[in-house]
Amino acid sequence: MADQIEAKPEKWLARGTQMIKRNSMHLLDLMEQIMDLTKLEAGALKLSSVRGDALEHLQEVIQPFRELAEQKQIQFEFSPPKDNEILMDYDPDKLAKILSSVLSNSIKFNKPQGKVQLSLEKGPWSLDTPPPPHLSEGQLLIMTIKDTGIGIPEKQLPFIFDLFYQVDGSSTRSGEGTGIGLTLVKGLLVLMKGTINVSSEVGKGTIFKVNLPLFQDSTLAM
Question: Which domain covers residue 172, as residue numbers?
């Protein structure tokens, strides 16, 4: 593209510079994901938790995806908790990376006139594993991301969090990613003592459910 701009600036300057910026940001994001994965594997990635209302932060994270969905003619629905607040200790950067990665997939593998629904709710610990100590009333933050996209074959679901794994097939090839994002999501959630579950049906869509403990002491969340 740089060569095309140099050869024919009157044709490519405006569109080409935007493309270069977009691809540069994508490359930067990919490099950050690889660095985070490397730190996770080495046990060197740490949480930088703050205490506050995570809902305000999550709404900021969501906004660009609202606009992206609108551009792709995809309906985006957001349901906050009933009390409109999520008081907890959280790492803003890592929480944003988790939600952004899942939302990105839900939009990428969707279709025009499709739908993406994000709901946030607080609920009791209902997982198979014992709850971590010092939870606020034993509660979880439950983030459910549901889409009406192309779906994932059942036999491939166990592998989607594996590094570099990509759901194959002609129907997904045009929107295929790098196979890094969901691996990083899983690793970050382990670090944050959370979990992620997925269910899907080909042709009907996918549901991701992220569970995070509502810690109230940042020293315990690290």
Answer: 46-221
